[in-house]
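Q: I'm writing a short explainer about Reverse transcriptase Ty1/copia-type domain-containing protein for a general audience and would like to include a description of its predicted shape. Could you first generate the structure from this sequence?
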Amino acid sequence: GEYRKVCKLKEAIYGLKQSPRAWFHKFSEVVSKCGFARSPLDHSLFIKKNSRGMTVLVVYVDDIILRGDSDQEISDTQLFLQKHFVTKDL
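A: Of course. Here's the predicted structure. Afterward I'll give you a sentence or two in plain language.
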């Protein structure tokens, strides 16, 4: 990089056309680190299978539905997401 260069931000990423894509890309990276794999048939569907059973995560805009066989796995996933995003359990 170049040193002693300053850039003036014209507009924050929030509200730009690229915002949803950037958020979803970041979200996909985070949930893959937690062991989820994105469905090839529906890109808003993420599935995790392990010894505790299957956990399913569905994303719609900025809402997430999390269901699975293990209450502990769901709880662990919620805690993992809270470390990376601001969340609210409704």
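A: For your explainer, you could say: The longest strand covers residues 53-60.
Q: Perfect, that's easy to follow.
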